[in-house]
Structures are given as structure tokens and as C-alpha cells.
Amino acid sequence: MTFDEFLNAEMAGLARLAGALTGDRHLAEDVLSDALLLASTRWRRIARMDHPAAYVRRMVVNVYLSEHRKAQRRRTEPTSDLSLLDRTSGEDPQTTVASRDAMERLLTQLTPQQRTAVVLRYVLDQTDDDIAATLSCTPGTVRSHLSHARAALRLAAISAERG
Q1: Which pTM does this prediction carry?
Q2: How far apart are CA 3 and CA 55, in angstroms?
Q3: Do 22 and 77 contact (CB within 8 A), yes or no?
């Protein structure tokens, strides 16, 4: 499989992953382009792997986590533009925007590893083992990240309802 064929098959999923991880369209584009540039330079080796898409997804996650660490050092925050994650539905646009805004505010309360685990589990429907391989940790650590994330999201949602 050539790199172009790979991109044709996987680009939409990789863009959704980057968008869900970053919560910012422009940062997602930067993260994805950096990861794909790196993947293109290593494509001969990656193409021979059993699961090249999983490897490139891991590259996207690693670039995201690296960017997050850089942003923390710079003490900057990306703006929120979730248009990349828009999905057309029959819902009222105001309800859709309010729900998306509430979800984004909840997700920003999570650590980068927790957010990554949540996105990989609930957006990409990956198993603990797949997430562990992506995050370079054990499946038990993945379950811990997800458990802590769910607890944090529950507390934040309860606080939002009261506040």
C-alpha cells in the first residue's frame, strides 16, 4: 500500500481523532500534519507493519501529547473551534451547540492522558489493549485513566447542574 492509498483510506478517521483530542480545529490540523509528515518519512517501514493505521494513530496521539506539553510550558491555551467534529443531525442547532459546548468544557477538566483514553474508547471504540499500546502503558493504567476520567466528568456535570 502506498502512502497516498493509506491517506485516502484513513484520513477521515485520523482527522476525527486529532479533532477530538485537541478540541481545536487549527491545532488538530497542526497535530495531524506533523504526524503525517513524520509518517511519510518512515512509510516504507510503517507499510510493512501488521497494523499501519494503528501505528499512525499512535503517532497522532504522541504528537498531540507533545504539543500539549509544549503548550503547558508556554502557558497558552488553544481556542475552541469544534466545527471539525460537527455531525449533521435532525437536532435543533441551539441544542447541538449547547451540548457540544458543555462536552468541551467537561473534557478540558481531564488530563491529556485521560482525555486521550476517553477519545480512543468512546469516539474510536478501541479496546483497553489498543489504547494501552497507543499510550505506551498497561491495560490496567488505561482502565484507571478511564475510571478517573468518568469520575471527574460526573463531578463536573453535577457541579454544572448546581451552578
Answers
A1: 0.56
A2: 13
A3: no
